[in-house]
Amino acid sequence: MAFDFGIVILTLVIGALIAVLVWSLTKKSSESSTKGKSEKAAGGKKDGKKSSGAQSKPAKKKPAVAISKDSKSTFTHSWLLTSLKGHTGAITDMDFSANGKHLATCAEDRSLMLWKLNFGRLDSTVMELNMKDIRTVRAHVQYDSATLIRWSPDSKALLTVRALGNNIEIYKVLKKPEAGGLPSVQVSHAFEKTREADLLAIDVASTGRFIMTCTPKNELDVLDLKGNLLASVITNQMETYSAKISPDGRFVATSGFTPEVKVWEVVFSRSGEFEKLNRAFELSGHTSGIYSFDYSPDSGRMVTISKDGTWRLYNTNIDYRQGQLATLVVSGKWKSEGNEPARVALAPDGRVVAIGSNCSLYIYSTANAELLSHIPDIHAAPITRLRFDSTSRFILTTGDKYVRVFHNVPGFKIAVADLEVKLRKATGQALKERCQIQLKEAKALVELFNARN
């Protein structure tokens, strides 16, 4: 049988081609596998994961905003009665009820809180209060938060300003039927928005006749209790910083970028009908803008604090219609800490002035403007509200989510000196006995705090 060399050669060629094709495909597959492993290893290294077979722990997701521990939550001081804790956001405003039983606060956490304090009945020997000794009521601001809060004169309602709505909302404060029960707080109604600029102040006259609002754009409005506009005036202070109604319900005053406090009388007829908003008088003497001001309970004194580094106490027990002017009683210097607006409050008994500068509290004598005390670093943020209670025994501050309540120890010490002078001048037996009792109580308080220090 003849051997066909052509078929053999063709077979060898086809076999060789097949071998080359298989080798080529095997090499390409090997390179792809190697490349995939390299990329996987590189990707693992880029993502911060281990390239070994062991499963690595997932990286922790960082929060959008770093949260630091609030060191001020553990603030202590020998004069501190208590720290009111309950809000989870910064407190924006606070106000005492006219009967002195409750403090109302509002905060960025969209809540309102009532704190049953009743300082007038608190025993003078009580040095500290725990939160378990303080009863509270909470209400929520629906779809918004409140920036300002004020009690009605009869303590039966709360007026607030909604942050987003920039309008007044009214809450009813309903008393519990049982004696000593805490009231409940319910939304009643709201007024229509009247100003585009944010309201910086709201107040209610003690007479119950009108409501006052003001904006930084110098828009001062007087409203009736239904929210209807009675009068409006432009304060012409370039920018208004503060506005308040006098405790007697007669005057409205504003302060701002210009170096004076402007005062208007809200005039009503004998039958109770609104007549006009009449320019009354000014408090002059500062050389720069006035951050804030405060009244004495009888409206006969006003205290101011200015960018010029001074505070001033005025006698406002005047008849401006007879041409009488407010006169200076005493002036002192205060220490500015940073560029934050300062707050000022006058003790109801008129003995001391409190100033909140940045995160610190300063207390001065109204007799000679002497600095009596300085308490630093009270809050985690600058002090935004500062108040005395109606007894002058306590000073309240807020600037973060807490309200600090301090014993007014400098006021106690001045009270001892004043009562000693009053006792020496007393002529009647009843007056002497009353002075002796008050002096004994004041001395006991001072001795208690001297012992703590």
TrEMBL record:
SMART domains: WD40 (SM00320). The chain crosses the membrane at residues 6-25. It comes from the Eukaryota. InterPro entries: WBSCR13, WD40/YVTN_repeat-like_dom_sf, WD40_repeat_dom_sf, WD40_rpt. The keyword Methyltransferase does not apply. Residues 30-50 have a biased composition (Basic and acidic residues). GO terms for biological process: endoplasmic reticulum unfolded protein response. WD repeats lie at residues 84-125, 283-315. One of its GO terms (cellular component) is endoplasmic reticulum. This is Transducin beta-like protein 2. It comes from Daphnia pulex (Water flea).
